[in-house]
Design goal:
The strands form three sheets. Strands 1-2 form a two-stranded antiparallel ribbon. A two-stranded antiparallel sheet has the order 3-4. Strands 5-6 form a two-stranded antiparallel ribbon. The protein has nine helices and six strands; from the N terminus they run H-H-H-H-E-E-E-E-E-E-H-H-H-H-H. Strand 3 and strand 4 form a beta hairpin. It is mostly helical.
């Protein structure tokens, strides 16, 4: 039993090390897909069509404007996820009450005990045995990053970062704009893709045709896969939960952080509408919404005793 546990731990360690090792490779892969797509759409097809005049020129102009606008938002959201810290436990963090269970009785200093020897029988204190520190509510340890992450959703290899309280909105916007961009590109290149299977002569060099074909296939694949992922995260946001929490509470009919769809949405995107579709928050929301900082979360009073 001990040997099998040690082998499993070693395999997990190797897996996490491999994920950390991907690093800039995944960023280069994303930029590579963007580059191939840009070359196919702008330089091979719709850029040259601008000089054709007439309706074709107008269609090309509309496609290029939409393409570039979505590309800017996609890259802005992507690098916001990559470079934004998802949220770590503040130094010397000490909760005043047991927020995880909704216990309003103040915590005593004696309950914390020495961090090196946490009391496993004290259900009012959340310890991370790997980080050897206290954990705020909805906080989980990431084995890839090697630390606790506030309101951790998952570790994403595509952004080479954890997705947590401080960058979850940016991640959702990245999915949203990726789906829109890949859908636009798929529809824009569809006539050229169909032309591959026609009997007529196709204009363009072999490299241009190959790049167009590759770009269409890649964007169609990403559009379909990201659509499913986006739908899943929309359902998570509507219930004010994360991927990890959804697994933990899968047998629980009610969730204490579920405040209704509108408030659940605001817990991630804020209350100011003009900021909903950009990877940023207004200062007002950051000041008056503790949930955006990842430490405190409002909950339903009638479910404050709920445990997992």
């Amino acid at each position: 039993m001990y040997r099998s546990g040690a082998v499993m731990a070693w395999n997990v360690f190797k897996f996490c090390t491999a994920l950390r090792g991907l690093g800039s490779i995944m960023i280069l892969l994303v930029l590579g897909v963007v580059g191939v797509t840009y070359y196919a759409v702008v330089l091979c097809n719709y850029g040259p069509a601008l000089a054709a005049g007439g309706l074709d020129s107008l269609i090309s102009l509309v496609v290029l404007i939409i393409f570039h606008a979505l590309l800017v938002m996609l890259l802005w959201s992507y690098f916001s996820v990559v470079f934004t810290d998802p949220g770590g436990v503040p130094p010397n963090y000490r909760p005043l009450i047991d927020q995880e269970r909704g216990d309003l009785d103040p915590l005593e200093a004696s309950e914390f005990g020495p961090l090196t020897t946490p009391d496993p029988t004290n259900g009012r204190i959340r310890y991370c045995r790997k980080c050897n520190q206290l954990k705020p509510p909805r906080c989980h340890h990431c084995s890839v990053c090697g630390r606790c992450v506030l309101k951790m959703d998952h570790h994403c290899v595509w952004v080479v970062n954890c997705v947590g309280a401080l960058n979850y909105k940016y991640f959702l916007l990245f999915l949203f704009y990726t789906f829109l961009e890949t859908t636009v590109v798929t529809l824009a290149l569809l006539p050229h893709f169909i032309a591959f299977f026609s009997d007529g002569e196709i204009p363009g060099s072999p490299s241009t045709l190959a790049t167009t074909f590759l770009a269409f296939v890649l964007n169609l694949a990403f559009a379909l896969s990201v659509f499913g992922f986006l739908i899943m995260h929309i359902s998570l946001v509507s219930a004010n939960t994360t991927t990890i929490e959804a697994y933990e509470k899968k047998t629980t009919p009610k969730w204490r952080y579920d405040l209704g769809r509108k408030k659940n949405f605001e817990q991630v995107f804020g209350t100011v509408q003009k900021y909903w579709f950009i990877p940023a928050y207004c200062d007002e929301d950051l000041r008056r919404m503790p949930a955006l900082q990842g430490i405190e979360y409002p909950s339903k009073p009638d479910l404050d005793g709920q445990e997992f």
